[in-house]
Amino acid sequence: MTALGVSSIGRDSQLASIVANCERGVMNAQIDTDVVIVGAGFAGLYMLHSIRGLGLNARVIEAGDDVGGTWYWNRYPGARCDVPSMEYSFGWDDDLQNEWEWTERYATQPEILSYAGHVADRFDLRRDITFETRVTASAFDENHDTWTVSTDRGEEIRCRFVVMATGCLSSANTPDIEGRDDFAGRSFHTGQWPHEDVDFTGRRVVVIGTGSSAIQSIPIIAAKAGHVTVMQRTPNYAIPAHNKPLDPAEVAEIKADYRSWRAKARDSTSAFGGYRPRPDVSAKAVSDDERLATFEERWEYGGLGFGGSFNDLMLDQESNTLAADFFRSKVAEIVDDPELAEKLSPQTILGCKRICVDTDYFATYNRPNVSLVDVAETPIERITPTGVVVDGVEFEADDIVFATGFDAMTGAIDKVDFTGRGGLSLREKWSAGPLTYLGLGVESFPNLFLITGPGSPSVLTNMIASIEQHVEWIRDVIASMTEQGMSTIEAEGESEANWVEHVNAVAGLTLFNDCNSWYLGANVPGKPRVFMPLVGFPDYKKKCDDVAAAGYEGWVLA
Ligand code: FAD
Ligand code: NAP
What we know:
Blueprint: H1 3-8, H2 10-23, E1 33-38, H3 42-53, E2 58-61, H4 70-73, H5 94-99, H6 109-122, E3 129-130, E4 135-141, E5 146-151, E6 156-164, E7 186-189, E8 204-208, H7 212-222, E9 227-232, E10 238-240, H8 248-256, H9 258-266, H10 288-301, H11 317-334, H12 338-344, E11 356-358, H13 361-364, E12 370-374, E13 380-384, E14 387-390, E15 393-396, E16 399-402, H14 411-414, E17 417-419, H15 426-429, E18 448-450, H16 463-484, E19 489-491, H17 493-508, H18 537-549, E20 555-557
Parallel strand pairs: 1-2, 1-6, 2-3, 4-17, 6-18, 7-16, 8-9, 8-16, 9-12, 10-11
Antiparallel strand pairs: 4-5, 5-6, 13-14, 14-15, 19-20
């Protein structure tokens, strides 16, 4: 069903909804809204618009005081997308995509946030969003086939469906370092950045972490700070962004056939960059000169496409090492001090942790006001009121920036106290790692949908493409259930178990299991080590389409 097609069935499906509710003894009066959507990032916004298109009611509950999700919370200096702006945007409305003008190859956080605000205004979404409210619990009522959603403001909302649009990277992870709360200066987490400008002029700043958030923010902080001390546990791969203003002629060419251009992207493993497909050849199958030229060309082009230089970088250790060696040679070229270059050079599998996209990250270490402290061998000992202690040495600081990432993929879902059939707690069910069917639903938790949930390609893709695919799948199943008077849909236990096995088997064919990434939950102490996303968008999308075409195979509809 297309986005345009949906609105035409609106009134019929509303009627069907009423009839269905009456048939199973649930009068509309007992339901406050058809659907509760948790989160008002891109997923929540599109889900709300899509539910309205069915003629049903929805309420969005959002912890922040505005829309935008990731782009509302991550306001740290230098924050921008690493998927090109022309792709990192919605494709479901032609007027929206043709009228919106991105200014740069990789848009800044303020620009993406203003895009989210524009979407909310254009489709009049804010009137159904309750801000500054957190969903704390949700319990399934087996007698009425409804969910009761509880909020931290004491409200209880009864609905048919709950959609978790809570994001994969929305639960900030601040390590529990001794003395953390005693620090007398300012401390920040990149994922919970203040709304006001933070001035680092002349200040001594300790940055903890060297992931994407740190790599984007360090050069900008260093340009003003008195001194920046970077505490690095694992060096990272960062490919230059070569960010630049968008060329109007290039934009016009894309917009002339935006739909096909996006469709091409969705045919690629990570649902973006389809216009520069990875060569279908192993890094080992070409001559040294050809390989070097390919790496060089991808490096010069910039961005995440470097990971697609050849078809086997994530499949073959030797091919991966060839790419990693090239990368290390670049770090050695950029960083003046060879010892420092060595320390900044990752020895892990390239791409095993998400590759970063940077502007002047490595060059920043040539500045006299930037120094690196290795905290791999000797972890941060404690935080004092005046600084951070490593190996008995205190690094004095006015400010600490925790660029320490997120309890990814399950963090935000786990924070909600879900109770499904038979009083089963979702947290308990997931205690050894998340279990889902297609990353969309969970056995014993009927009518609960996860957008970009664990077990779906999500964070290995252009997430907006994954969000759109999930929202449309969920919209269509709700439409179909409403039309047919079905009251519940629930993942079958066997299909869920097989799916989890499949996700693991696919990951097992790759090199993704070979490092301590947040894909595996390895960044959060005590979190079960399970590879959570599924590799490969096109096959996954086909599977979801096939499941729907076969009458929702693997799901129980009642
Ligand atoms: P989010 O944007 O995370 O929104 C979830 C919302 O749910 C949040 O606003 C949160 O407050 C709310 N919420 C959570 N729990 C509750 C609760 N219990 N009650 C009420 N509200 C709740 N992906 C890409 O593909 N390309 C990129 O370039 C890219 N860059 C990124 C840069 C940063 C700094 C980060 C952190 C992530 C980036 N991502 C990127 C991933 C990004 O998260 C997704 O692209 C996308 O924005 C996710 O949208 P979402 O709506 O699913 O979730
Ligand atoms: P991250 O990739 O998880 O990086 C966190 C960093 O903090 C890592 O270097 C980690 O070290 C370090 N760390 C964590 N706990 C530590 C401790 N106790 N002591 C010392 N170091 C510690 O988090 P992120 O940088 O916020 O990025 C998360 C994801 O968000 C990215 O992978 C990406 O998907 C998305 N993102 C995208 C962009 C973009 O370019 N568009 C920007 C930011 C974020 P270890 O590696 O050793 O664990």
